[in-house]
Amino acid sequence: MSKSLRASLCVLAAALMGMLMGCGFYLKGQKPLPPEMSELYLSYPHGFQTVRLGDTLRSGLARRGARVVSNTSTPNRLTVYSLPENTRVLSVGRTGYAIEYEIEITAEFDYTVN
User: Fold this and answer.
1) How many alpha carbons lie under 13 Å from residue 21 in its C-beta half-sphere?
2) Strand pairing partners for 19?
3) What is the largest CA-CA distance in the chain?
4) What is the distance of C-alpha 74 from the center of its chain?
5) At residue 15, what are phi and psi to the nearest 5 degrees?
6) 3-state secondary structure string, 1-27?
7) Is there a contact between 64 and 32 (Cβ–Cβ < 8 Å)?
């Protein structure tokens, strides 16, 4: 590949990235959090699924610059109430047992900013 072709492709790629950023497109995890979410209290019921969700939320928020605090008097609160789960069989094998499932988990939550 010639130098001029390579340079043209780099300019084209940079122009495309600029256009995507201009229209509000961000790569996952790159969009900055609003200032109100810089510090918040995270609350969720205790159970296997919700603890895993809480850990995932806590680390994801920290990666994006938020500080999850243990002080319950913090004005910004994210409260997860429940994680209802629905399971549906998608396919059954020759033996009559399910071999493929679809699992749907819905998070019921409330975010409050005082």
Assistant:
1) 9
2) none
3) 62
4) 22
5) -65, -40
6) CCHHHHHHHHHHHHHHHHHHHHCCCCC
7) yes
The amino acid present at 57, given as its one-letter code, is L
Task: Print pLDDT tens along the chain (114 aa).
Answer: 677 777 777 777 766 666 655 565 556 656 677 888 888 888 887 765 667 777 888 888 888 888 888 888 888 888 888 888 889 999 999 999 999 999 888 888 888 887
| Phi and psi at residue 23, to the nearest 5° | -90, 5
For the four alpha carbons of 32, 35, 36 and 41, in that order, the dihedral sign comes to positive
Cα 49 to Cα 43, 45, 54, 67, 111, distances in angstroms: 14, 10, 9, 22, 20
**Backbone dihedral angles phi then psi of residue 69, each to the nearest 5 degrees:** -110, 160
Q: With beta carbons less than 8 A apart as the criterion, state whether 72 and 93 touch.
A: no
Rounded Cα distance, 100 and 90, in Å: 5
